[in-house]
């Protein structure tokens, strides 16, 4: 059974930083492309970053809204997927979700709330 557990959210002041984690079980994460999405209040869920698997190749892609401020990383040995967020803005306030597609199904973490406010 594939499970994703998001963690690390919280309240941070504008300009601050926060690190999110996604713990993955039920599959070998290194074999799969991983993604982060977010959903702000009253808005649709928004893609923010895709990290390809080694087999897929290619480069990590970021949405323009986070490029240069957010960085992803992986610990494939521990099946952990990270999102490092810097220079946070109030408009980054949202619930953040990690996602993976496995055997024609899409799996989501439960989400972790990030609030950027003074």
What do you see in this structure?
- With 118 residues, the protein is an all-beta fold.
- 0% of the residues lie in helices and 51% in strands.
- It is built from no helices and eleven strands.
- The protein has strands spanning 3-7, 10-12, 18-25, 34-39, 46-51, 61-62, 70-75, 80-85, 94-102, 105-108, 112-116.
- Strands 2, 4, 5, 6, 9, 10 and 11 form a seven-stranded mixed β-sheet that branches. Strands 1-3-8-7 form a four-stranded antiparallel β-sheet, with no helix packed on it.
- It is globular and about 40 Å long.
- The model has no long low-confidence stretch (mean pLDDT 96).
Which helices and strands occur, and which strands form pairs?
Blueprint: E1 3-7, E2 10-12, E3 18-25, E4 34-39, E5 46-51, E6 61-62, E7 70-75, E8 80-85, E9 94-102, E10 105-108, E11 112-116
Parallel strand pairs: 2-11
Antiparallel strand pairs: 1-3, 3-8, 4-5, 4-9, 5-6, 7-8, 9-10, 9-11
Descriptive tags:
single chain; about 120 residues; 4-stranded antiparallel sheet; mainly beta; 7-stranded mixed sheet; about 50% strand
- Tell me the β content: over 45%
Shape: globular
Number of strands: 11
What would the average pLDDT be, to the nearest integer? 96
Termini Cα gap: 40 Å
């Amino acid at each position: 059974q594939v499970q994703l557990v998001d963690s690390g959210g919280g309240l941070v002041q504008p300009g601050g930083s926060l690190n999110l984690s996604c713990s993955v079980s039920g599959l070998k994460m290194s074999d799969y492309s991983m993604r982060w999405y977010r959903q702000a209040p009253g808005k649709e869920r928004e893609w923010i970053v895709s990290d390809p698997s080694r087999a897929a190749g290619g480069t990590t892609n970021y949405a323009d809204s986070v490029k240069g401020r957010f960085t992803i990383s992986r610990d494939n040995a521990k099946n952990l997927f990270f999102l490092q967020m810097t220079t946070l803005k109030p408009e980054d306030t949202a619930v953040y979700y990690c996602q993976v597609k496995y055997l024609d199904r899409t799996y989501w973490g439960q989400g972790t709330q990030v609030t950027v406010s003074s």
